[in-house]
Amino acid sequence: MKRTWRFAAGAIITLAVAGGVWRSYHTIGRLTAERDTLVARVEALEDTVRTFLRAPTTQVIQIPVSTGGRVGSVTIFADSVRHRWLVRCDGLAPNARDQAYQLWFITDQGMATAAVMPMDQDKPMVMGLEMPGADQRVLGAAMSIEPRGGSATPTGPMVFRRLL
């Protein structure tokens, strides 16, 4: 009887250790894959930033803004050759729960949405944006405060409107 009990206890301990090893192995594999994905994303973002900052075709536009009684800025790195913008927003007040900042391209055909940016935290936001297609010429940028899901056209208060 004692021998059976010891054998059963040993088997249970062995299975528990094996289960822990198996779970650890799979957790490490999953975390390694996540880390590799994050490293690739960071490298791609660093390459994008380097390209924007060093390109002779990049125009830098800094726009002072005031939101919620705070002074901040929106900086646009506009690359006319690659038809992309890199936008950094600093010092903007966090949005109300049902609102978001919406960035607009001012085009020769009217306003075209560029990005909806719900800002829940008090920290800078950076994003890369594709410019509208060749059928629209971008003349400037604007930002408004819109419903959380965004709007087809600006409906809320304008934070800024700037022709380039």
What layout of secondary structure does this protein have?
Layout: H1 2-54, E1 58-67, E2 70-79, E3 84-90, E4 99-107, E5 110-117, E6 125-130, E7 138-147, E8 158-163
Antiparallel strand pairs: 1-2, 2-3, 3-6, 4-5, 4-7, 7-8
Overview of this protein structure:
The chain has one helix and eight strands; from the N terminus they run αββββββββ. The mean pLDDT is 86. With 164 residues, it is of the alpha+beta class. It has two domains: 1-54; 58-163, Sandwich (Immunoglobulin-like), CATH 2.60.40. The longest helix has 53 residues, at 2-54. The strands form two sheets. The chain has a four-stranded antiparallel beta sheet with strand order 1-2-3-6.
Keywords for this structure?
164 residues; alpha+beta; Immunoglobulin-like; 1 helix; 32% helix
